[in-house]
Every structure is written in C-alpha cells, then in structure tokens.
Amino acid sequence: MTDTTVREKSTTAKSNPAAKPTGPIGQRLERKEDRRFLTGAGQYTDDVKLAHQSYAYFLRSPHAHARIKSIGTKAAASSPGVLGVFTGNDLPATVGGLPCGWLITGTDGKPMKEPKHPLLAQGKVRHVGDQVAMVVAESLEQARTAAQRIDVDYEPLPAVVDVRDALKKGAPAVHDEVPDNTCYVWALGDKGAVDAAFAKAAHVTTLDFVNNRLIPNAIEPRACNAAYNRADESYLLYVSNQNPHVERLLMTAFVLGLPEHKVRVISPDVGGGFGSKIFLYAEETVCVLASKQVGRPIKWTADRSESFVSDAHGRDHVTKAELALDKDGKFLAMRVQTRAAMGAYLSTFASCVPTILYATLLAGQYTTPAIHCEVTAVFTNTAPVDAYRGAGRPEATYVVERLVATAATEMKIAQDEIRRRNFIRTFPYQTPVALQYDIGDYDACLNGAMELADVPGFPQRKTEAARRRKLRGLGYASYIEACGLAPSNVAGALGARAGLFEAGEVRVHPTGKVTVFTGSHSNGQGHETTFSQVVADRLGIAVDDVDVVHGDTGRIPFGMGTYGSRSLSVGGTAIMKAVDKIVAKGRKIAAHLMEASDADVEFVNGKFTVKGTDKNVPFAQVALTAYVPHNYPLDKLEPGLDETAFYDPTNFTYPAGTHICEVEIDPETGETKIVNFTAVDDFGNIVNPMIVEGQVHGGVAQGIGQALLEGCVYDRESGQLLTGSYMDYAMPRAADLPNFQVDTRVTPCTHNPLGVKGCGEAGAIGAPAAVINAVCDALGVKDIEMPATTERVWRAIRSNANRAA
Amino acid sequence: MKISVSLTVNGKPVAAEVEARTLLVQFLRENLELTGTHVGCDTAQCGACTILVDGKAVKSCNMLAVQAQGADVTTIEGLAPNGDLHPMQEAFRRHHGLQCGFCTPGMVLTAVGLAAQNANPSEAQIREALDGNFCRCTGYHNIVKAVKSGIEEMA
Asked: Which residue of B has its CA nearest to A689?
C-alpha cells in the first residue's frame, strides 16, 4: 500500500476525537518499557560493569579563567591503584578538539569563530569545571585521591560571564584569537521593510529582557564506560546519550581519527536527556582514547556537582524586542536584537540554537509581514550553552508572546482578540523568516484552551481572590514550533554539517514476530511502545509481537537520534517506509502462494487477500515462507523478510497550541501559586494519547521551572557558579506544580504518512511566556525577570506600591 | 579499615566486610549489584536512591552501610519478589507515572513508605511526601495520581 492509504487511515481514525480507534494507533496502551523500570531491571550506563573495570576521575578547573603555568602529575601517577594520568599535554598531536556541527555565516560573510575546544585543557582553563586532567585507577576512590595530588599552577585571569560584560570594550577575551568575544553576528529578515513599517506604526511595544540560563538536570548524570579489545582492535563505548551514531561519527572522524567501523557505541536506558545528552563531550572521548593505553575498560559517572559545571546549559539570551502595530492592533513588523551566550567553547549544536532554531520562529502564529532579527553570539567564561528542551523555540515564543501580551495590555485589546486579529488562517503559509507552515488551526486551540481554562469565570475568581487579599492573573501563550528536524537539504543550506534524516529497519522473523531497529532513541519518551503500536497497526499483528531496538550502533543501520521532537515524525516515518517495503515483498510472496497476480493481492488486517475472493494467507505464513522458501519464486525474489529505509523529511512539522496560566499571588509575601495551567495543543495525529499527555506535562513543568524557579547564576566578578547544587538551583518539586489540564486538536501533518508533528518540546516552549504573562497581569506590571521568584515578585509589588504612593 | 556488617536485603540475609566509609547505596549497587537503586545527586536532594529500611523510606546515599547493621532493607528489586507487580508499581504503570524510569524506584518506595504512615493521604499530603524526590520528566502530575491510586489499592 502507498503512504496515502496509510495517511487516510490514520487521519480517519484521529481527525474526529470522538471516533474510537480500531487498530493500535490512537490507543492509550500501557508502556512496554515500564516493567523493567518499575522492577529495577532497567540498565543505565552506570549499571554496566565490565570485566577488569577501572574508574576515571576528572580534575576540573576551580577558576573561571586562568593560565596553566604547569601541571605536576608525578605524585598522582605513583598513588595507590593508579593506572594512568592524562593531561592536555599528553594528548597525541593527531587528536582534534571537539567539533561544532553547525556552521553559521555572519552578516559580514565570514564564518563563525571556532576556537579549539580541547579534550583536556591546553594552556588555559576557560570556565569553572573545565576538565584539566583525568586519573584512571582500580577504584573511583583511588582515582579521586590521586587527582588531589595533581599540582596545577594556575595564574588566574579576569573572567567574564555575562554577555553584556563580554561585549564591552576592553573586556577580557575568552579566547586570544577572538578579542571581541564575538563568535558571529547573524541576521535574518528584511531590515528595510521592518524599519519602514515601524516608521508608520500607530503603536510600538518595546521590551528588554533576559531569557534566563538553565541547567538541564536530567536525573541520570552523564556517564560512560569505554573498553578496547585488542583481539580485533575495536572499541566499545557505553554512554548516556541521545544519538549514538552521531556520537560515534563525530568522535571517530573529527576528534580521535579512529576507524568508524571499529567503534561500537551503545546508549542503553537513558535517564532523561532534554538536549543535554545530544552532544559529544570530552569525558567519553578521553575515556575511549585512554582505554587502549590503559588496557582496561574505564568507567566515568558524573557527580551531580560535576553535571552542574560541565553539562551544556540552555538559553541565556539578552534581548531587545519591538512590535509595531496599526491602530487596530494588527501586527506590522517585529524587530529583535539578541545577544546569546555560547559559553567558553562551541558545543556540538550551540551555534544553530539562537539562529536557525530561534529567529525563524519569530512569526509565531501571526501574519506579521516583516520581521528582522539580529543575533550576536558571545563567548563567556561559563559552561557551554547548547540545546535544552525546545532549543531556541522557547526563546522565540517568549519574545513573540511577551510582546503580544504587552501590546494588548497597552492598547486595551483583549488577549484573545489581539491574537485572533493576527492569526494565520491560510495554509501553506510562507513566513517572512524562511519557514513555510503546512497546516494548522490556531483558533481551534485558542478556543479550546479558553474553554478548558474557564476564561469566562476568571473575573469572578479574581474578585473572590481579591476578597482574600490575593492577586489573580491570567496569561496566554499561543506558540508555534518547527519540529521533525529536519530536511537535510534545507539544513545543509543553512549550515548543518550533518544530514538530519532517520533510518529504520524492520526485521520480520520466520514466525511472523517483528524486531524494529530505529536510529532514533528513547530517553523516556516511550518509543518502544509508540513505534510498536505503529508497526502492529500497519501489519495487523499484536503490539507484543513487535520489539523495538534503539541506541546501539552495532545493531542499527544508522541513526540521527532523538531531539527536536523528531522521533515519531522522522524516525517513525522511516519505520513506516520499511514496513511498506515488507508489505510490498509480502504481497509478491502471497501472490505466488495463492497463484494470483501481484496486482490482485491486497493487505488488510494482517492478511494478504486476493481482491474480491475469500482466498487469503496470513502475515505469519508469508513470513515463514520467506525463510523456508520451498514453494517460492526464487527466480524473481530473494528469500527473507527484512527491510531498511531511510527517510528525509520534506519540511519541518509545525506543532502549535495555546497555553493559559492562572496564578494567584500573595502580595504580603510574593508567593506565586499556579492555580490552573491549561494546554491545548495540535500535534497532528496521535498514536498514544497517554504518552503524549505525559510529554506535555513534563514540558510544562520545565517551562514553569524556567518562569518561576530555575536560574543558573554565575558570580559576575569571580565567574564562580553560585547555583552549583540542588540546594542552590531550584528544581521544581511536586508541591511547586499544579495539576495540568491538557487536550489536543488535530490538523494532521501534510507531509508524513502518519500525519504526526511531535510533542516533546511543546510544554517547555509555551509555558514560560504563559506564566510570566499571568504574573504581569496579576501584578499590573509590564515585565518581571525570570525566574519570577517569590523575592522578585515581592520586590515588584513593593516598587509598584511605592510608585502608587 | 574494614568493618563487618550483616543485614537482611529483600528477605535474604547478607553479610560483608566493608570499608567504614561505604555508603549504603554503594553497598547495594556495587557489592550486591542491586542496580535498581539509583544515584542522581551528591547532596541527598534527589531521592533516586530511596529504599525502605525497616519499612521506612530512607535515602540510601545518606546512610553508611554499617548503620544498616541488623536492618531489614527492601530495594525496588525486592518489592515484588514473586514476579507480579506490587500495587504501587502497578499504579505507576497504569497512570503513566514514569517516563525515563531513573527516579522511579525511589518514587515508588517513597510512596510505599507514605502508605505505611497515611492510608488516605490528600493530594497536598502526597505532594508534600514527594518533596524529597525529583522527577524531571513527568511534572509529577501522573505520579501524584499513581501514588493516590496505589495507596488505595494497598489498603
């Protein structure tokens, strides 16, 4: 069957929410992976213990910026149990730095600055936590004890951790070869058209704000275990990671110069990633390199304190944003200037986050005809900044939805009304910032969210709260995201140094059971269940007869991994393409068995049937025939039933929705409670509603975390990380969060056979603006900085009170 | 210096000589290879290492192995010894109270510990009881539902 047939089937099943799905697609099935996680049988990287295991400890910089005058390793090397001590001086000359996977070309036509990111510091350290040396020993305690005997003579240098400071004249240079700390200045959009529109605007709304730096904090810390096998000169690397093939490609081809086929990367169960485990890090790379020299498997697991200083962080923008409107509240143009921190080195995808994944989303759900965005990427003496859940799109949504909400307040237009006056309603829609939206229904999500949030009842609730001396506020965020990363040719034209397709293999066993090998990965999103549902639905077999394998370069043809809400729309489609090939071959086998022509055989409900007859053979019999080909067209067809497909999407997918947050604030203390959070999203067709709801909950929780609780703080003078533990960095706890009301509307994606768009990042994208809009509404202020902590809210109330008095 | 310690883990007697500084979580993970108990932080904040010690939910990173002398310890591996899921595990599964699974063993055992203290907790009491356990995936929404349902099933 063709893709079209599949699309029709899924669409029919899901376009009407009331219709009960008949096949596995659309069912709220319990997850296949849960039993192992619930019984302690999950296997995370640190759970893996190899024969003759040794352990690594990394000595890290205590300084934000310092010259290394000398490193003495003699005492450490002779410590009990030590098997090896490695510093930047010991790295072979052939070993490269960690590469950046995305080239941004600046407005000056020059490529971005890419200073070397050494595996272990060479000459200088550039942020607190920069790795200086690795000690390998029989036990972790011995490695740690020995590391304390390494004598590093540092000459501290002035440090700069804030982009505003880093761009000042005479600021300390993070890299000597980049004296102005500017990695690139990049722009998108028609500046002339924007300036002209602003000149004739009836109203201009302006905001200056910081999009706060976040620390991803997957609960499983990063970990790896590397082993060299001298029998075949191969390496095995276990690593907690989102995309093992990319990890291997970058590590072998760009850093270590090892033969790619001699390195197997296994990423077993992963305890959350949220972007932070996409990247190639120094630690696993050094462990692979050292495993041959030491001749023992080397395991490293980050302490949480190490995670805080060495995982790639997220966000950290300083932005000035302006919106020009006509007298009726119609958007005429948007102008945005952003200074984005890169940290001390360019992490794997750092450069594309504040550009390609940010400026392109500034149209939001609106028909704003002219948009211009200029981004200055800045080196600072901090941990690198890279993709964190949403990656660029939460920052874009924050710009758009804070501007829209503020403009509505300033022009005294209702929040829903200003959005309705500007919604895109004709598709496909070409935005002025390079994207083409294929489909959407923004009114449906806005209306749905307003209904679920009981917006009509809000004035009464506000009055009732006021009686209790509490302030109530309502905030909207109508977001859009570009997901399903990504069409390779588009990405390539924009600077990507990799393809962004996905691969899938479907292996039908002789008994008709199926193993699916996907190049995507699951970090908790439940792909073993979702992908099984898709395959079982298409093949008409039981969900339990399908197993899904991910996270192993030794078993899976190739893969680009999990990020950018791409796993189902890109990875799932690759699997569907492979299933199509299975069905096509199965039809030929069945035609032979039934002595019919291929064209007369159709595949319905797990049976190959001769059209218009009751002649049929079940799928399992075709599978057996493929492997026991006694009665088989061997002259025309190979035996076996195992197909691989690669799928490169033709466009991004565009999930969108409206989130509405209601807060209640105690003006005496500043305590802010989220009393209601509603999300109505359009993710296209949905395979497992239970899993999708869970993804939204988690994303919203991270978005609320950014808005109210979380903020990474470096001391502006010393460059020390002040929020370096869970006692200083406020992670959302159970009592900090409300129950969430979530629902969906469906416009199926037009360019993949499942009609799916992706749901993993939506919550983190929509929530921060919704929350801050609600807080500003409650307080009657124009802006409040994230995280809007109790203290900041209290101060805002106090300064308001002072102003009023 | 090595010290001998003997205790019951998941119903079986265990005796070992350990370094005095060995944390209970290290003893479980490394000596007994019970890797269902996880380590997510180094400041006793995240709760991924929560186990039951004499029926009480305890962070096993915050206790030395020798302090468990004579104790009756239950880890996630021992919660459902005969292969069926414990009602709390079943409730987490039914309500999708887990995603990546890393915090899950600690969450489940914290919930079982709560059940022993409060047979009918309110939602607020459940959220309060989960204060020492981080989950970065679920936003707690489904965990709270699962704990409520699991405690009802256990009654």
From this structure: B96
